[in-house]
User: Fold this.
Amino acid sequence: MAAPKSKPAAGSAGKPAGGKRIQGLIKLQVKAGEANPSPPVGPALGQHGVNIMEFCKAFNERTKTLEKGLPIPVIITVFSDRSFTFITKTPPASVLLLKLVGGKGSSTPHTVKVGKVTRAQVEEIAKLKMPDLTAADLDAAVRTIAGSARSAGIDVEGL
Assistant:
């Protein structure tokens, strides 16, 4: 699975964002390749006066290489002239972990375990998530992802 690019996309006529006043910042989680004007995308963008279809087309184009339906965090910067840029992040660690074990998280994570992952699998997720984590190195990122796994009721072998 390829990581989405974190490069901002130009909104409205592709003008650069330099010198414009920021009107708002919108944070959403949208499924890869499935952005459409219905909630939550439509109302969130509509209240800032953004061209919703333009965002949907640009987002779907950028996420077409990812697995369809994977939730992708996106940060949309809206400018005073109603143009926008957006940055896509990597999928949440919990989603990637639960996909590995094939199910839902545990309702009581410290007593009922829903699956197991190996250190190698956790390392792979950590490498993918590295641009979005505050970890200084891969080992710290692995520990962060392992903590997310334990919180979801997933045993981590080899740590």
Summary: Helices lie at 41-46, 52-62, 93-101, 119-129, 138-151. Residues 93-157 form a domain with the Arc Repressor Mutant, subunit A fold (CATH 1.10.10.250). Residues 10-15 have pLDDT under 50 and may be disordered.
